[in-house]
Amino acid sequence: MKFLKQYWLVLSIFLLVVCLVLVRTFNREDFRYDAVKWAESSIPGSNLLTEDKILKLEGEALLIKLGNGAGTEKEFRVKTVTIDPGLILEKENLSVIRKNRGPVILFSDDRSVSARVWLVLSEMGMKNIYILQENSDKVPEN
User: pTM to 2 decimals?
Assistant: First the structure.
């Protein structure tokens, strides 16, 4: 008991740190660290869609226009939300994506923005995320 009385502060801090590490380790909100695994579907292009394939998808599709100017000249026949790419990880934006019961399609005027957001969402463990591709000649057939 004398040992506990002498080192109660150190033991308390140690237990607190261990608890915080365990909470952080098992938190589902964090990124998965196997980026190669999550990026595998981008190699054959199975994460790319053309406009004509959107309506063939099962479930209620959600189109996310990344940025204010993304695709303003086009209208799509699916539920559409505009989100700034820098704010994609905010709680309310992630909630919109997670609540959708179907494919989530990312669209931006800059293709690299869509690809980066796709990778971030994929690393978070989200599935059924696609990138809208305008040129149908570059999208492989599934």
Answer: 0.65
Alpha helices in 26-103 (DSSP H): 35-39, 51-54, 91-99
Q: How far, in Å, CA of 111 to CA of 42, rounded?
A: 13
User: Tens of pLDDT along 6-30?
Assistant: 888 888 888 899 988 888 777 655 5
Q: Which CATH architecture has domain 35-138?
A: 3-Layer(aba) Sandwich (3.40)
| Beta sheet of 79-83, edge-to-edge order | 48-49, 129-132, 104-107, 62-66, 79-83
CA dihedral 46→52→94→124, nearest 10 degrees, is 0
Alpha helix segments (H runs only) across 8-110:
8-25, 35-39, 51-54, 91-99
For residue 79, list its beta bridge partners. 62
- Domain locations in the chain? 1-30, 35-138
- Distances in Å between the Cα of 61 and the Cα atoms of 1, 28, 100, 104, 118 are 63, 24, 8, 6, 15
| 11-25, 44-58, 93-107, 110-124: segment of lowest average pLDDT | 44-58
**Which pairing describes strands 104-107 and 129-132: parallel, antiparallel, or unpaired?**
parallel
